[in-house]
Specification:
This protein has helices spanning 32-44, 105-116, 142-146; strands at residues 10-15, 20-25, 50-57, 62-65, 70-74, 81-84, 88-94, 97-102, 128-131. The protein is an alpha+beta fold. The chain has two domains: 10-44, no CATH class; 50-131, Ribosomal protein L6 (Outer Surface Protein A, domain 3, Alpha-Beta Complex), CATH 3.90.930. The strands form three sheets. A four-stranded antiparallel β-sheet has the order 7-8-3-9, with helices on one face.
């Protein structure tokens, strides 16, 4: 991760007694907001745990996890698809639901979107992999449009 640090007119002070670091900027440049968002993201990862919950709807799924936190999926293909979850914990809450949690938000979202892209939602039947609170609208078919 690259942090743009404003270097001109910057005063950084470390106070020993309350153990705090103070930054003082005389001006606001274009990197000011991005810098503080990145600093906040870095420090929040030490105290926050991020969650993603995925649900499977449909037939023909077989999902399991081995000891090394590898998610193995059988989605009706001739082979098993394996996703490696490094530093992300995976918990099966039900037969059709997966709860993933970890400290790194970027790795968690990348793993959840790669898992979601394996079986996209069918617009006619609503089957596929979705996030837990995602709303799916079905498209009306030819026969149901006339009834």
């Amino acid at each position: 991760m690259v942090l743009p640090v404003p270097t001109q007119f910057t005063a950084i002070k470390f106070y020993q007694n309350p153990r705090t670091v103070s930054f003082h900027f005389s001006f606001k440049n274009t990197f000011y907001k991005k810098f503080w968002n990145n600093v906040f993201d870095i420090f929040s990862t030490f105290s926050k745990i991020f969650f993603k919950k995925l649900k499977f709807k449909g037939k023909g799924y077989y999902i399991y996890k081995n000891v090394r936190n590898t998610i193995a999926l059988q989605m009706g293909y001739s082979h098993i698809i394996r996703l490696y979850a490094f530093k992300i914990h995976v918990k099966f809450t039900a037969k059709t639901a997966i709860l993933m949690f970890g400290v790194n938000k970027v790795k968690l979202t990348n793993l959840s979107f790669s898992l979601k892209s394996l079986k996209p939602i069918n617009i006619f039947t609503g089957r596929g992999i979705r996030f837990s609170r995602q709303i799916v609208y079905k498209k009306t078919g030819k026969m149901s449009a006339y009834r």
